[in-house]
Amino acid sequence: MGRKTVYFGETLDRYIDFAVKQGGYKTEAEYLRYLVRKAEERNREFLLTKAAVQEGLESGVSPKVGTAEEIVTLAKKRALGKTGVKQHG
Question: What's the confidence (pLDDT) of residue 81?
Answer without folding.
Answer: 84
